[in-house]
Sequence to fold (231 residues):
Amino acid sequence: MNGTASTRADAVFRVLRHDILRGRFEPGQKLRLAELQSRYDVSSGVLREVLPRLAEQGLATATAQQGYRVVTVSESGLRDLTDARVALEPLVARMATERGDVEYEGAVLAAHHALARAPLTGEDGDVSEDWISRHETFHHTVLQGCGNSHLLDAAERLRRISAVYRYWSAGETERVHRDLAAEHRAICEAAVARDGEAVATLLAEHIELTTRLLLQSTGRRTAGAEQATAG
Fold:
């Protein structure tokens, strides 16, 4: 693929990924080539490069003869994902604090500073794209000093899948019922202090709180739907 086509594929990948994370495609929705071509004004060839990349990141699934779908979400899937993340991410973060150097400390501080300066919500009241980007960068930076690319890649993939749940389901509930800024500040301070046990504990609590709030939010929506149907 030439440079122009590759650049176009990168741009479409970023937009489609953003739209999935922001809930513009329902979990489990089929990603039909014809619809995507029209929506993004792009060729089928570019999409055939983009869709496997989404699957590699865990944001889509591929089925023989059926094409690609947005990854599905479920309570059991979220619980399993949370268990996997709590087993892996704190381990990687602990390793990063033990193996990282002064450049690691500076990178964590810079990533946290950028996140702290980003507005959580945009003009539409939804989570801002700038905050999403800086949030991903911050968590990646905390983990990246671990020195083991296999562990880092596995942890990053789990984080990307969890983003579908977080941005599709959390909404106002997560923003109102927690102090995200304080959580991120504590993780940053523990990482910079090279306190592996603290950063592991804080990161596990951060992940588990997100899951609890998502499940609460899902439960309220389900109950509301059942009441509306009964009414």
Q: What stands out?
A: The beta strands are 30-31, 60-63, 67-70. Confidence is low (pLDDT under 50) at residues 220-231.
